[in-house]
Amino acid sequence: MQKKVLAGIDIGGTKTAIILSAEPPLVLGRLEFPTRPSKGPQAAIANIKKSIDDLLAGEGIDRSALLRLGVSCGGPLDRIQGIIQSPPNLPTWDDVHITSILRDEFKVDCLIENDANAGAVAEHRFGAGKGCQNMVFLTMGTGLGAGIITDGRLYRGANDLAGEIGHVRLTRTGPVGHNKAGSAEGWASGGGIAQLAAQSVAEAQRKRKKTILAEHAKSGKPFTARDVVAAVKKGDEIALGILRTTGERLGEVLAILVDILNPERIVIGGLAMRLGDLLLDPARHVMKREALAPCVGVCTIVPAALGESIGDAAALAVAMGI
User: What pTM does this model have?
Assistant: First the structure.
């Protein structure tokens, strides 16, 4: 009798990963390919199907061994109907009925979940949130979103939009995120860091102040958070100031979450995994200043424990059934 396996599908704007597992989060096999959203969804979906078959073949088992498929993808999406609805990183994926497409192909159930929610469940089950009853997971990448665990279960809200902390306005003006100037996503995300870098370098150039980041500006390429992190590692003062500002604004976000949700732990992915206390120390300081002391006293702020494999674990968590 063949062992039953789950297949997780992590669809991102840059790459799509297919993960096979009999005992999540342990991985039997994994394949990834460029998503290339500019070319539309058809080629990527064909690659998803082929990758699942290739992984099964590599394990010497056939399709009948598949127990369930799970798709983790950025929103907006319709979880109930299984439709991807043109996320910002997949603008050509307009109302793609991904779960029915894969269900029809493989004749097994297929589930889909917002990547922030899937990441929250993965960290809760396998990572830094293990043992917590009340936890928040922040996806601090290009954007900023949250997955919320309350009383040990995922909280989705009335129409699956709980956790859109990035849309909350922190200031009347400022970097733009979620199409809103001064939003939490504008101030505390990779996209926001890139905007702050462009602004800071322009100001430094006006003052004829030397900075490592100014060298990147000469290339004519847009700034990214990676450019700022690289400059930080070389001791660039402007880059360090940008991360300090980002950390402080992140602290304001944490204070809001702590006061409203009273979690035991806030787990932060993306930039927090790469920057650690350089980002989190100023965030913790501001959170302690701004939030209610009893709430702060029971909450720890930590980087995601699953590291760069969190997308794989998140997709498998969806396949397990959230």
Answer: 0.91
